[in-house]
Amino acid sequence: MIEVCSFCGEKKNVFEGLKGYICLDCCKASLSELEHIDDDVSDVSTSLNPFKLKKELDKYVVGQDEAKKIISVAVCNHLKRIEANDNLLEKSNILILGPTGCGKTFLMSTVSRFLKIPMVIVDATNFTQVGYVGEDVSNILKKLYIAAEGDIERCKKGIVYVDEIDKVMSKTSSHGDRDAAGTGVQQNFLKLMEGGTQVIKLPTPDGGIKEIEIDTRNILFVFGGAFVGIEEQDVKKKTIGFGGTVDVSTDENKEVTQADIVKYGFIPEFVGRVPIVVKMHELTRDDLKNILIGTDTSILKQYQAMFMMDKIKASFDDSLINEIIDNSIEKHMGARGLRGTIEKDIMNLMFEVSKYTNIKTLQITRELLNDPDAVISNNLLTKEDANSNNC
């Protein structure tokens, strides 16, 4: 039957229970969660320490050693704080700065997956202050509640990752007035971070609305953004000659302080609620190569696993690997650009390969990706000729 699911709030095919309805997606999520029924956050926190967490992150997140150390300590301290249930221990939200594709979102999603903590990832540019066109920040708690499969206790210990937070900075006009939209969004996020009780409204199966109270005191808020130019905003110019100037270069490893973030365009109240500032660097060529081929979950190994499902042993030409890396570096896309450079070509190749039943090995080159049908046909014909000559 078609009804509103009591868990995700969407209108779908549902199963009727004693007190509501549940859709197939929520059923699957619940069964998956039952496999880890003993893996509560409190159980994890008693045996977890920053060294163990970083060691786990090292398996998946390439480079960014300093950032992984700081976040491991911050997350472990957060879990200890929840376990101690001591109101005197203040929550330390996190701000991660780094260029596109350096691994900000992936780092936090890996933390969430390992600790089995519900997490939502939202884009700050989708939100606006109440009363304007856009999404209200209170919807974040609805998404977190759904991610926790309706478990209010797990929801109250979840992680909210807000990407592109630098896009809601407050710009100062020529009249000295603060930009209302950017400041308004920051203030709304501030309300969520302060740790009070927020009320969310969800639809009920009978068409009504139910109100759920969520205490945000133990929800960890992590904000990410590129913050382009934040290191250069304090560059002083040295005067030479008759009014000429020359830029004094800044250290690219300069520590970014809360004062820098306020100067960039954030209200002090917001910055004060985010005491931990983590800076991530642009990935090096070696980092990008490691992401492509060096780890167990590397991008090219994922493609190889897909081909192996069709009993095809695939390998990648070195020149193609270098091309993928060069393309990502040129476009300043970081790890995000690696998959984007080759994904469409690989999909096309997989389609063409599916026409044949006698392919056992595949050397993937740029030539093959450009014209897979022609290259595969020529190679198969060459092999057939060689086999007939050997007879």
Structure characterization notes:
The chain is of the alpha/beta class and 391 residues long. Strand 2 and strand 3 form a beta hairpin. Helix 3 packs across helix 4, helix 11 packs across helix 13 and helix 13 crosses helix 14. The chain is globular, with a radius of gyration of 26 Å. 31% of the residues are buried.
SSE arrangement:
Elements: E1 2-4, E2 11-16, E3 21-23, H1 24-34, H2 41-47, H3 50-58, H4 65-84, E4 94-97, H5 104-115, E5 119-123, H6 139-147, H7 152-155, E6 159-163, H8 180-193, E7 197-203, E8 209-215, E9 220-225, E10 237-240, E11 244-247, H9 258-264, H10 268-272, E12 276-279, H11 285-294, H12 299-308, E13 313-316, H13 318-330, H14 335-353, E14 361-364, H15 366-370, H16 372-390
Parallel strand pairs: 4-9, 4-12, 5-6, 6-9, 13-14
Antiparallel strand pairs: 1-2, 2-3, 7-8, 10-11
Helix pairs in contact: 2-4, 3-4, 11-13, 13-14
